[in-house]
Amino acid sequence: MKYAFAFTLCLLLLLAGVGVISAAEGGVASEVGGDSGLVAIAAGIAMAGGALGAGWAISATGVAAAGATAEKPESFGRVLIFVALAEAIAIYGLLIAFMLWTKI
User: Fold this and answer.
1) Angle, in degrees to the nearest 10, between helices 76-101 and 36-71
2) CA 88, CA 43: separation in Å to the nearest integer?
3) Phi, psi of 27 (to 5 degrees)
4) What sign does the dihedral 87-89-92-93 (CA atoms) show?
């Protein structure tokens, strides 16, 4: 049940971000004359979604990595790669946020 709520929240953030980006591209805001606010909101949603996704992934892989390292200490290098891949999700969100922000 907990995972269904987190998945639904991430999906709603994704849909809200797509809606804001599409509105900023050619929607009502560009007819009014200023879409920098919508792009800033989209950058915030991209960063928040990336941070939420990375936190969720790190919580799952971190527990597994700690268990694997406790049983077999020589596997630390391999399990560290999986945790680093989970951290990359936040970096991708930050990259998209910077790309959106430079559009303003």
Assistant:
1) 180
2) 17
3) -95, -150
4) negative
The predicted model gives 22-43 an average pLDDT of 64
- Cβ contact 42:93 at 8 Å: no
Question: What is the CATH classification number for the domain harbouring 74?
Answer: 1.20.20
pLDDT band at 61 (very low <50, low <70, confident <90, very high): very high
**Among the listed residues 45, 59, 63, 51, the one whose alpha carbon sits nearest the alpha carbon of residue 100:** 45
CA–CA separation, 48 and 16 (whole Å): 12
Span 12-40, average pLDDT: 60
The total domain count for the chain is 1
Flag whether pLDDT at 13 surpasses 60: yes
Q: What one-letter code names the amino acid at 25?
A: E
Distance, in Å, from the CA atom of 16 to the CA atom of 19, rounded to the nearest integer, reads 5
